[in-house]
Amino acid sequence: MEATIALRLPRDAASVPVIRQMLDSSLDALGVQRQIREDIQLMLSEACSNVIKHAAASDDYMVRTELCHDRCIIKVVDAGQGFDFTGTHQAPPSAESGRGLQIMEALADKIRFDRREEKGSIVCLEKELRFEADAPGESLLLNDELEFR
Question: In this entry, which stretches build a coiled coil (predicted)?
């Protein structure tokens, strides 16, 4: 099973619920467990919110989500000035803001931050998908595995 959702979105807070709802609807239709979907929604929200807050030179950004076998891979790409991820600090647990990177790191199975050479940043988040019993996604995944043998 492979599926891709790719959107170029305006750098506006109103764009975040749009991509969240699109991705969640797709994952729900496949029967992905609710907790996994909630983790993905929160990771995606944090990554998009960071672009909206920090990628000042950019008018838009791109979200590319790939459902590949049993993984959800999310790439949030902006064309701002880039961000030095090595210099980030840990916000205290009681802080009202500044905890987005920590939240993403806690929820993602894999996370990667890249600066693009031309300009901008890429946040890549991966999460293993787990399905409800008898979910469509589970049978699609099983059929996928049989084809690769």
Answer: none
